[in-house]
UniProtKB/TrEMBL annotation:
Penicillin-binding protein transpeptidase domain boundaries: 165-411
Assigned keywords, A-Z: Signal
SUPFAM superfamilies per the UniProt record, alphabetical: beta-lactamase/transpeptidase-like
Coiled-coil portions: none
A Pfam family this chain is assigned to: Transpeptidase
Region annotation Disordered: where it falls in the sequence: 37-89
Signal peptide: 1-23
InterPro entries found in the cross-reference section: Beta-lactam/transpept, Beta-lactam/transpept-like, PCN-bd_Tpept
Protein name: Putative penicillin-binding protein
Chain intervals with Low complexity compositional bias: 42-89
Domain of life: Bacteria
GO molecular function, one term: penicillin binding
TM region(s), chain numbering: none
Amino acid sequence: MRLSRVRAIAFFLFVFGVFCAGAAALNVPQSTTVHHSKSKTASHVSSARHAVVHHSAATTSARASSAHTSSRSTHSSRTHVASTRSTTSHIGSAHLMAGAAVVSGTATTRTAYLRRTSLHRRHRYYERFTASSFVVGGVGEGDITAGEDPVVRQAAIDALGDMNGTAVVINPSNGRILAMVNQKLALSPGAEPCSTIKLTVALAALSEGLVTRDTMVQLPGFRMNMTQALAKSNNLYFEELGRELGFDRVRHYATEFGLGELAGYEISGEQLGEYPDQPIPESEGGVARMCSFGQGVSLTPLQLGALVAAIANGGTLYYLQHPTTPEEIANFRPKVKRVLNIAKYVPDLEDGMAGAVEYGTARSLRVNFRDLPVFGKTGTCSDNGTRFGWFASYSNSAEGSLVTVFFLEGGRPTFGPKAAELTGDFYRDLWDHDFFQVKNQDAGNSATPAPAAGAEQ
């Protein structure tokens, strides 16, 4: 019995000794093993493992920083706000650069790019908005409506619902405003045009012969033509066009298309948007950023409406007129501001604008309306706690065309696709009231044919 106990104790001491030896071996620093390894492959794998660990640490740190930052007040500077506007393309670029860092095996570079990506994500998903997307009370109360088309106006009011915004509807064959809901906002100094600025940049690039709708432009990691870029509202594509054109040419065409000047003819209360004389600083993106979503530019709903009306009618830029009495309707005569040499480029532009509605950023319009072709462009961006949602469009029917601009201000529920959705509601309402068969024809009867170049200004 005593011998058995001795054997048991000896066995226990043997096992304990083996365990301690194993533990000592496990505690040898890994870097020591890697340091003595003569295999280049093993060294590379080790480096890759270290990079992955560093990536996790950086990501964790960025998430913690993001969570902490989200409890603070929203950044109000334009530089920080700019990174929140249409950031999908920039985030994609950061991921591409992070991937390049993995190939090179440079942990430091990889970490820097991953932190940049996390920063974009933080701004994209945690931006705080202080403005409300909704209004209390009737939309358009206090508007002057005696000279407007009552069917068009009611359809625009119903489409807006309780959203904080304005809707402007224009007859592109003569420049007459058929409805202007929430006139205080419609006549205000405007806001950043967001991606609707891409229409002016596209027309400038087409006019200069820089591209056609089918020209494939090489971008980081992919290629794209104008039709795809307009439909998907791709920032990188228009940044590249902006750099190729340069600020002077971009500004020349923008002002030729009516930006930076009053769009209306003696419309009481209309205020002026702005197109700057100099590009924004390169630190904020320069001319590239101005061409992707209009940073530094102030656009009014009337200016955008006048431009889209010129696209719809083949190049006549009308002064917009807003009759306020039955007498003004009876005496209405169109007034031409100037004739733009864009007719041959409109089909190139229409492909992308149709694509936006059919499969791109404005496809929400087709949820409620599919009875007529609609060509449009969305825009979404934010500034100082307020988010903007734009959608400008024109319809195409045998009885005539309409131009619409829906502009929304608010918080997270406000964005370009929402404005496109409301536009679909507007067209559906008119269609259900047989407007395109009857009312639009009546509106056209009040107009004279479009004057040629050099006609009464």
